[in-house]
UniProtKB/TrEMBL annotation:
Species whose genome carries this gene: Microcebus murinus (Gray mouse lemur)
Coiled-coil ranges (or none): none
The UniProt record lists the keyword DNA repair: no
Taxonomic lineage: Eukaryota, Metazoa, Chordata, Craniata, Vertebrata
One GO BP annotation of this record: cotranslational protein targeting to membrane
Name by which UniProt lists this protein: ADP-ribosylation factor-like protein 6-interacting protein 1
Keywords, sorted A to Z: Membrane, Transmembrane, Transmembrane helix
Segments crossing the lipid bilayer: 43-60
GO cellular component: Sec61 translocon complex
Length: 89
């Protein structure tokens, strides 16, 4: 009976893995393109990134995303400054 349970869990794991692979397969193309953009393989990538980012700014700001991340960055910077001060004492 334990062998039957083991086979079922193995089959379930295989099915979940296959499902995950299928879901992630489309992201492969996205990751390849992102890699090319980050490596600036084309001369027009940096200006295209900047224009795209500028177009997204109003929407991001409207939802408070920019403010959230700026606040997080400020907290991290303050934390690092405090650690540096303690280290220097």
């Amino acid at each position: 009976m334990a062998e039957g349970d083991n086979n079922r869990s193995t089959n379930l794991l295989a099915a979940e893995t296959a499902s995950l692979e299928e879901q992630l397969q489309g992201w492969g193309e996205v990751m390849l393109m992102t890699d090319k953009v980050l490596r600036w393989e084309r001369a027009w990538f940096p200006p295209a990134i900047m224009v795209t980012f500028l177009l997204l700014l109003p929407g991001l700001n409207q939802h408070g995303i920019i403010s959230k991340y700026i606040g997080m960055a400020k907290r991290e910077i303050n934390k690092l400054l405090k650690q540096k001060e303690k280290k220097n004492e």
